[in-house]
Design brief:
This protein is an all-alpha fold. It has a domain of 212 residues. Helices cover 75% and strands 2% of the residues. Helix 2 crosses helix 11, helix 3 packs across helix 9 and helix 12 packs antiparallel against helix 13.
C-alpha cells in the first residue's frame, strides 16, 4: 500500500504533464501568427506541414515498422482529387479534402493488400512504395484529359481564384492556412496518442519489433499492417488537398515527388519514429535548418538536400531511436535507477 501511495503522486504528475503540456504547446503555437512577419509565418506553415507529414508517415513507418519511400503517392492523390472536384464539379475543397483522403486511403489499402500479401518487407517494401509513387507521377504527367475532365498533364492544374471565399478554402492571406494546419496536426497527433495506448498500438509495436514473433503469438500481422497503411494514407491524402489550396497550383512532378515522402521520413527519424511527438520535434529542427542552409548557400543549389542526407546518415548510424526516443530511453533508465 505504501508503494502505491508513493507512486500515485508521480503517476498523477505524469498524467497532468502529458495532458497539460500539449495544450500549452498548441496554445503557444496558436499565438505565433500575431507576433511574426510574413516570411516567418511561411516557415511556420512549412513546419506544420512537415510535422503533419512526418506524423502521418510514422503511423506506418514508425509504429508498424514498414518504412515507405512512396507516401507522395497519397499526397498527390489527395491534391488531385480535391482539385478536380472543385474545378470540374464546383465541390468545396473542404469536401474534396475528405474525399481525397478517403480515396488515398482506399488506394493505400489496395497497395497494402498487394505488397503485404507478397510478404514484402524492409527495403523491398520501401522500394515498392517508391515505385508506386513514380508510376502515379508518370501516369499524371501523360494524362491531359479523361472523358472531358481536364487532368492537366505535365503542365499541372491551376486552381481558380475568385476572391476570398472561406467556404471554398480561399483566404485573404496565409494566417487561416496556418491555423488549419495546426488543427490538422492536433488531430493526427491525438490519433497517434490514442493508438499508443490502445491494443492496436501494442500490436503495431510487436510487429515493428519482430514481425514473425508477433505472428507466432497470434497477432493478425497482415490485418494490422493494412490498417496502419489505410490510416497513414488517409491523413497524408488530406494534407495533399490543403497543399493545393495553399498554392492554388498542383503539378505531378511536385505533388508525387519523392520530396514529400522523404520529408515525412526525415522528420520521424530525426525526432524519433514510433513516438507521439517525435515527428513534430524533427520538423522543428529540420525546417529551420533547411531555411538557414538556403540562406547561407543560396548560390549553391541542392545544399539543403546534402545537409539532410548527412543528418539522415548520422541519425540512422548513431541515434537510430531519434531525439525523442533518446529522451524517453534516458527517462526510462532514470525511473528504474532507484530500484
Amino acid at each position: 500500500m505504501t508503494v502505491l501511495a508513493e507512486g500515485q503522486p508521480a503517476a498523477t504528475g505524469r498524467r497532468l504533464i502529458s495532458i497539460g503540456l500539449p495544450i500549452v504547446l498548441f496554445a503557444v503555437a496558436a499565438a505565433v501568427p500575431s507576433f511574426v512577419n510574413p516570411y516567418v509565418l511561411e516557415i511556420g506553415i512549412l513546419l506544420l506541414m512537415y510535422a503533419y507529414l512526418g506524423s502521418s508517415w510514422d503511423i506506418l513507418g514508425g509504429w508498424a515498422g514498414q518504412v515507405s519511400f512512396g507516401h507522395a503517392a497519397f499526397f498527390g492523390i489527395g491534391a488531385y482529387v480535391s482539385a478536380l472536384l472543385w474545378i470540374n464539379m464546383g465541390l468545396s475543397p473542404w469536401f474534396g479534402m475528405i474525399v481525397g483522403a478517403l480515396i488515398a486511403s482506399a488506394f493505400g489499402t489496395l497497395v497494402a493488400f498487394a505488397t503485404f500479401r507478397a510478404r514484402l518487407r524492409g527495403h523491398y517494401f520501401a522500394l515498392a512504395m517508391f515505385a508506386v509513387a513514380q508510376m502515379l507521377m508518370a501516369l499524371f504527367v501523360n494524362l491531359k484529359e479523361v472523358g472531358g475532365v481536364t487532368i492537366g498533364g505535365s503542365e499541372g492544374l491551376q486552381l481558380p481564384y475568385m476572391g476570398t471565399d472561406p467556404a471554398n478554402m480561399v483566404f485573404d492571406g496565409r494566417v487561416p492556412f496556418y491555423y488549419i494546419l495546426l488543427a490538422m496536426l492536433a488531430v493526427v497527433v491525438g490519433t497517434i496518442k490514442l493508438i499508443s495506448v490502445s491494443r492496436f498500438g501494442a500490436y503495431l509495436q510487436a510487429i515493428c519489433n519482430d514481425e514473425d514473433a508477433a505472428e507466432a503469438l497470434g497477432v493478425n500481422v497482415f490485418g494490422c499492417k493494412v490498417a496502419a497503411m489505410a490510416i497513414s494514407a488517409f491523413f497524408t491524402g488530406a494534407i495533399g488537398a490543403v497543399y493545393g489550396q495553399i498554392y492554388l497550383y498542383i503539378e505531378p512532378g511536385i505533388v508525387f515527388s519523392s520530396v514529400y515522402s522523404i520529408q515525412g521520413l526525415l522528420c520521424a527519424v530525426v525526432g524519433g519514429s514510433g513516438t507521439v511527438w517525435g515527428p513534430v520535434i524533427g520538423a522543428l529542427i529540420l525546417t529551420p535548418l533547411a531555411e538557414i542552409s538556403k540562406t547561407f548557400f543560396r548560390d549553391l543549389s541542392g545544399v539543403d538536400l546534402m545537409i539532410f542526407g548527412a543528418v539522415l546518415v548520422i541519425f540512422v548510424r548513431f541515434i537510430p531511436q531519434g531525439l525523442m526516443g533518446l529522451v524517453l530511453g534516458y527517462a526510462g533508465l532514470r525511473r528504474k535507477a532507484p530500484a
